Amino acid sequence: MLVDSHCHLNYKGLIEEQGAVLDRARESGVTAMLNISTRESEWRDIVATAERESDVWSSIGIHPHEADAHPDIDLAKLVKEAQHQRVVAIGETGLDYYYDHSDRDRQRQSFRTHIHAARETGLPIIVHTRDAEDDTAAIMTEEMEQGAYTGVIHCFTASEDFAHKALNLGLYISISGIVTFKNAKDLQATATKLPIDRLLVETDAPFLAPVPHRGKTGEPAYVADTAKYLAELRGENYSELCETTAQNFYRLFNKAHP
Fold this sequence. Notes:
Layout: E1 3-7, H1 18-27, E2 32-35, H2 43-52, E3 56-60, H3 75-81, E4 87-96, H4 104-121, E5 125-130, H5 133-146, E6 151-153, H6 160-168, E7 172-175, H7 185-191, E8 199-201, H8 223-234, H9 238-252
Parallel strand pairs: 1-2, 2-3, 3-4, 4-5, 5-6, 6-7, 7-8
Helix pairs in contact: 3-4, 4-5
């Protein structure tokens, strides 16, 4: 088994040939894909893709870049939309202080709302964090004290210290193709220390195509390249890493369990 725990199948670059993209993923051994939403306008199509494709699942959420544009997305709406049988996660949500496309206070408010939705639905939350480690960790910790929830730090590029904080809260960590980049030395060092029972792999397609596909449009098939690199980096067997990360995926996103 091999799972792409985070991709955007309905984004430009993939949607135009989505059927062929899915076929190539399956030929590469990918047995499940989680198709992530980032704005409300995507929700219907993303869920429809999951309804149509038995190995594709979906999330409901608002990306921090989109927080300003979605002031009406409240707890009730997230919880309602997450009831669909093909929706297995809340997000992606979180904080992005690198681009600051949305007001930081609004990002923080949206992040907390998504955590509340995760807690109420029992679904895991998908966390995006960039240049916002301290606030992300503080909010996750404060909210965990208010009631348990689970989730994953997707496309992990943060510090080893932040990884420990997320793991101590019970969250998982997902590694993308960035780990294969030659300048990702800190991430590579951290990736060797992550516990295998809390590890996921992803593409974030159509972004971040791993070596040897850099410069191309990313797609779920390339998660195999990231997994192979990660197995070699960690000194582990490729097949066993694929199997374990897939089992981790189904443990976390248990609504998707085959």
